[in-house]
Write a structure and sequence with these properties.
Two copies of one chain form a homodimer. The first copy, chain A, is mainly alpha-helical. Chain A is 68% helix and 8% strand. The relative contact order of chain A is 0.12. The first copy, chain A, binds a DNA duplex through residues 58-60, 69-75, 77-79, 91, 94-98.
DNA sequence: GATGGATAGATGCGAGTGCATGTTATTTCA
DNA sequence: TGAAATAACATGCACTCGCATCTATCCATC
């Protein structure tokens, strides 16, 4: 347990952390796609839109929450609008901005996706962890959360 | 603490797990890029090449280790060859296949990248976790590891 | 109330990724 | 042995992403 042993452990742990989280995320995405649903990021956006305000959200607010680059958010909204899951509306308080609103179709998709999403999360993530582990993971994530 | 509270906890934990791991990975990539180095995936490939066999690895072996799709591996090798970090050599035992070998330039890059990489991992990952937490995380990752 | 700087969002372009399929070589097995 | 199935790798195409840049609006200050 001297200092020399900690360094290789961390780099190995890092590699495994990245590999596993990528694999788990990928597995959930695969399940969703197999069930005929759009990618996770869409669901995330819908959920946040519904959660925060039925009146809609500014694009930059959504973007901040999703940790997405500005141009990616812009294009994601493009796609969501193109298939009719959200609407862009002019923003009364800021002429530069816009308000993103869930459509009925979008709301319906959230409910339709949830069972498949939940099953996938359970299969690849929650169902593999015990109660003590989920608690520990929660604390860890808190510490890893970005400095900003 | 009844059963109803566990379900939202898991889905919330999942969301945070994904968000945090994406953010941490992104932060490390940003640091590497800022230091003028190629992306993490390159380093991974180099490291695995050096670790397993100085004679080189088959493309599909590397691909399996890196959890990469076959076509992505093929193209990654394209890029690595294009900048001279690896070589493709014909495989004596299998005419379809090839052996991927690190070049001297590639070997040198591993050593050049390590300090920056190590610093980034420490800053965004290892340095934020205590010894007990790294141990707990290790166990968790074991359970989350894909079934295959 | 004009002007310089900051902020919200869009977009052209090059590079990366997923998907389907193609090519060549190996294995299986009748 | 010879045809069918499979494995290793490549590639055309559409879509997504990162980067830089552009436009339009807002705000602060003079």
């Amino acid at each position: 347990m001297d200092q020399h042993t900690t360094e290789p452990d961390i780099s190995d742990l890092w590699a495994r952390f990245m590999r596993v989280s990528q694999a788990v995320l990928g597995a959930v995405e695969v399940d969703l796609k197999a069930a005929g649903f759009p990618p996770l990021a869409w669901y995330d956006a819908f959920l946040e839109l519904r959660r925060v305000d039925p009146e809609g959200l500014r694009q930059f607010e959504l973007q901040k929450h999703m940790l997405l680059a500005q141009y990616n958010m812009s294009r994601l909204v493009d796609r969501l609008v193109a298939v009719g899951f959200v609407r862009r509306e002019p923003c009364p308080e800021d002429g530069r901005g816009q308000v993103i609103c869930l459509t009925e179709k979008g709301r319906a998709l959230i409910d339709a996706m949830w069972p498949a999403y939940r099953a996938a999360i359970t299969a690849h993530f929650g169902g593999r962890l015990g109660a003590d582990e989920t608690a520990a993971l929660g604390g860890m994530l808190e510490k890893l959360r970005p400095p900003a």
